[in-house]
Design goal:
Oligomer: heterodimer
Order of helices and strands of chain B: EEHEEEHHHH
Number of helices of chain B: 5
Distance between the termini of chain B: 52 Å
Radius of gyration of chain B: 15 Å
Number of strands of chain B: 5
Strand order of the largest sheet of chain A: 4-5-10-6-7
Shape of chain B: globular
Strand order of the largest sheet of chain B: 2-1-5-3-4
Shape of chain A: globular
Helix content of chain B: 25-40%
Strand content of chain A: 15-25%
Structural class of chain A: alpha+beta
Radius of gyration of chain A: 19 Å
Helix content of chain A: 25-40%
Largest sheet of chain A: 5 strands, antiparallel
Largest sheet of chain B: 5 strands, mixed
Number of helices of chain A: 11
Number of strands of chain A: 13
Structural class of chain B: alpha+beta
Strand content of chain B: 15-25%
């Protein structure tokens, strides 16, 4: 276990002041479900840490609210709270599905949406639906506030470009258009307590004739950085989804994976599986199966 | 490194402890408070042997900093029996032979209790999800689920 001093700010403002003071020497702890493991492993990334700043008790960062067309989730909202939220289940059911696949009940009671984003694991289950939703982040520091897209913060696995004095306080996104169906699939080695081998989120909007007017497809653990797969999305536009079309969409996702990640030892497995998951997640969203 | 003074309630009793800033709740329960019923299995949140109940929710005490427990109510396996009488779940675990080596049992009982306190009429499937964060490597889960189901049905 790494050794550090424990700081407990009474407000977001005080947390920002502490971060400005200690910068790279400080690490923020929220639910601790990732950080405690890294501290115990004496992760190289944390070797300069002298302070852990605990924000988990700051109730002001625990909320889910509707704000016009937008939904706003406080960074300290737990996976379990998101899963149980009526607002989330109604507006963006695939996010509720995704957070409910994180770890175990124990992990979901402690782990937070903000922590999951900042940990930047390529296998994070809440991230694909947030990517599909084009989520934005609100960051604060002693210098002020800024908003960035979720996609823009990921540098590489487990590394973000957030400044050392910045605190993620909110993730927000626009609700989905009417007639949008969503789904999320996680593929793990077992049902609980598994890190996703791959996961995928899809949101499909149909018109009155059953043709796709909007498609969002976001796989996890497949691309070097989280992203939507535009080539697969565009393929679906204006067409009524059938098995042949979904097979083609699956191939677009695997093509994109190989284009961006290259051929790796796991490609032989991942290629057919991500193609099948793409078809399955869209079918599930549309209620086929 | 400065020790942190923490006021919390453990098994309904107010407790004040001075903890190392990097001590886990698990360490403080076992080493400072002598509550060794809470076990350390993996130490990384994957096995559930260290499960305790904090403010009504089951969590892994290996992933919680003791310093962060100010004002919290914690229940450990030692707080389950009341006035010398076993909790109905403990009783049911014994009757259903829901343990062999017993190492995972305190954690399983904590998860089962937190789960039943919140879920009145769970299905068998719900119970399985409720204890999905607790690994058992010898007994398996059938007897455990049977025991929890029996107590759940008695609550009707």
């Amino acid at each position: 276990m790494l050794k550090f001093d424990y700081l407990r700010p009474g407000s977001v403002k005080e947390a920002c002041r502490l971060l400005a003071q200690h910068k790279e020497k400080a690490k923020v702890i929220a639910g601790g479900t990732d950080l405690m493991v890294q501290l115990r492993d004496e992760d190289k990334k944390l070797k300069d840490i002298a302070y852990v700043i605990d924000i988990n008790h700051l109730k002001e960062l625990k909320y889910i609210k509707k704000d016009g067309d937008y939904l706003r989730i406080g960074a300290l909202t737990t996976h379990d709270e998101i899963y149980k939220s009526e607002l989330i289940n109604e507006a963006v059911p695939f996010l509720a599905q995704a957070v409910n696949t994180v770890g175990s009940p124990q992990i979901r009671h402690r782990g937070t949406i903000g922590g999951s984003i900042c940990n930047a694991s390529p296998a994070a289950d809440p991230v694909p639906p947030l990517v599909a939703l084009d989520a934005q982040l609100k960051l604060v520091s002693a210098k002020g506030e800024r908003e960035v897209s979720l996609l823009s913060i990921f540098e590489k696995p487990y590394v973000t470009n957030l400044a050392p004095d910045e605190l993620l306080v909110e993730v927000y996104f626009k609700g989905l258009p009417e007639n949008t169906k969503t789904s999320f699939i996680k593929l793990g080695r077992r049902k609980a307590l598994a890190i996703a081998r791959m996961n995928i989120a899809a949101a499909i909007t149909l018109d009155s004739e059953g043709k796709v007017v909007e498609a969002r497809i976001a796989p996890g653990s497949v691309l070097p950085k989280p992203d939507r797969v535009r080539t697969a999305e565009e393929l679906l536009l204006g067409k009524a989804p059938d098995q042949k079309l979904l097979e083609e969409a699956g191939r677009k996702v695997s093509e994109e994976m190989i284009k961006r990640s290259g051929i790796r030892w796991s490609t032989e497995y991942k290629k057919p599986v991500i193609e099948a998951l793409t078809q399955r997640v869209i079918n599930q969203a549309l209620g086929v199966e | 490194m400065e020790k942190i003074k923490v006021n919390m309630k453990v098994n309904s009793k107010p407790v004040t402890v001075e903890v190392k800033p990097y001590a886990r709740l698990l360490d403080v329960l076992r080493e400072e408070l002598g509550l060794t019923g809470t076990k350390e299995g993996c130490g990384i949140g994957e096995c559930g042997a260290c499960t305790v109940i904090i403010d009504g929710e089951n969590v892994n005490s290996c992933l919680v900093l003791a310093a962060s427990m100010e004002g919290k109510e914690i229940t450990t396996i030692e707080g389950m029996a009341k006035d010398g009488r076993l909790h109905p779940l403990q009783d049911a675990f014994i009757r259903h032979n829901a343990l062999q080596c017993g190492f995972c049992t305190p954690g399983l009982l904590m998860s089962a209790k937190a789960f039943l306190d919140k879920n009145q009429n769970p299905t068998r499937e719900d119970i399985k999800v409720g204890i999905s964060g607790n690994l058992c490597r010898c007994t398996g889960y059938e007897q455990v689920v049977d025991a929890i189901e029996e107590v759940a049905n008695k609550n009707d």
